[in-house]
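Components:
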Amino acid sequence: MKKLINDPAHVVETALAGMAIAHPELRVDAKQRVVVRGDAPVPGKVGLVSGGGSGHEPLHAGFVGLGMLDAACPGEIFTSPVPDQILAATAAVNAGAGVLHIVKNYTGDVLNFEMAAELAEAESGGAVRAVVVNDDVAVRDSLYTAGRRGVGATVILEKMAGAAAEQGRPLEEVARVAEAVNADSRSMGVALTSCTVPAAGHPTFELGENEMEIGVGIHGEPGRERVALAPAREVADMLVQPLLADLPFQRGDRVLCFLNGLGGTPLIELYVMFDEVARILRGNGIEIARSLVGPYITSLEMAGCSVTLTKLDDELVRLWDAPVRTPALRWGV
Amino acid sequence: MKKLINDPAHVVETALAGMAIAHPELRVDAKQRVVVRGDAPVPGKVGLVSGGGSGHEPLHAGFVGLGMLDAACPGEIFTSPVPDQILAATAAVNAGAGVLHIVKNYTGDVLNFEMAAELAEAESGGAVRAVVVNDDVAVRDSLYTAGRRGVGATVILEKMAGAAAEQGRPLEEVARVAEAVNADSRSMGVALTSCTVPAAGHPTFELGENEMEIGVGIHGEPGRERVALAPAREVADMLVQPLLADLPFQRGDRVLCFLNGLGGTPLIELYVMFDEVARILRGNGIEIARSLVGPYITSLEMAGCSVTLTKLDDELVRLWDAPVRTPALRWGV
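Structure:
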């Protein structure tokens, strides 16, 4: 295992300690593993909390800040945060306007966020709502999930719901935006290699020298099929056609096209893939009105990518374009 | 070779075609391989041009835009751009106030930029100056370089000189800022794995399962020594002590600490390394006044990182903080 770490058991805390120094505008509790926007709780504002297993950086802690999340609680690598963490994050951002939990659809995450929400409501009396992200069209059920997994749409949803909250909209409105983004987003990924969880010390799964996993999950869960390596234009087809079939997107639709790197794939390849994805969308009369290209929801050093399409209307475009100031996504401020 | 590409001979063009769609605010000539800021030439402004081999993305094309580069010319992977490309980029950003070439110190790059500068001056009569970046302390001479190689400081220099140019400063002033940043920056990197140039189809060099290359170049050039894998805190020592010895930095200095990922190393490990680097700096009485953590000057999918320290004064802090709007670095706008 070739990794720039010390003790495999303390990777998350040490990384959070590094984040604290690199981003003094955040409040990082490396011990309790909660990352909070420096000015939280923001009076009158709905608080947005997300979290999940570590190893997907910059998700989620890299998206804490103005116009996006108020707090993130990173679990162990590829492991749900515990209810206490989520409760602490929820309390830290509760300004009396309610809190929205953004939860990727993995069984452990969903249960722990539910438990934390109950505890938070009992403690503070404030309202806590949850949106469960389930945009991955690859498989119906998966290794850690009943129903579809939550993947790339999480980034888009955190940005857009974050913008709605920043505008001072009430909890039900922010939750409506979040639900709308989830309902109108679809994702699928491909792995060219596995990755190695530090505490395990060996690759999560094995892929032959000439194989790739279409529809892989962000923890290396099996996807739709294992196929022979193919050129980027064929891989793009394998990823995009299922998205178009599922929503379904229609001629004339505008989309946000998010070409995400899983960690080990260089940016130059992501732009090659983006060109191929754009060609398919153009052929289907779909306009790329906004785009995002880079490693934003990763699987440690896994080589591969995922494509997320979010159908846009004028409101979602405005929410996407609104100012954001986080370690990983920043514009307008 | 597991890569998301089509024909290995056309990776750069296809990636540039993808960039053109993802970043409509840039003018991308995928055929001539020149990426220009959309509003260039900006009247009265010194034009900043950089370039070099591809495979280091987001460097350089990802740094084109307001407050940073006016144009970039990407060569083949790990290969200098040709003089014609550099000439075209220079002409495209020449607003009559002169053009600054930012050149990493590799023999091919230096020669081709010099030739392009002569041609540009002969054609337009406008002044062209060059700054050669040579911040890598690892080795005195290298595989493709007489003298020290140019690495991470390039990113910092492009940002700060770009801000100076954006303020309307004259060519000699912008060049002075660039020279100052280069003079006060030092870098060193480590590779845990090699990378594979698509046209070659096999890894550039071999590293044993328990080895790492201290002082590696961004094209896989040999560094200072090949040593056994070590914990992050020891790796940080091996990278930072030579930087401190070389400048030398002193107690009370403020620095920008740039922890760069070489491509294949996950962000969570970069933050672990950042924490260790910060510990060493603190122990030496050096203050991290600004920081940058992420994959900004990469070597395809190479696993590893580099550390760049830039000694700051008030002027450089202001130039770093100034607004920037590029695909890879953006704030304030």
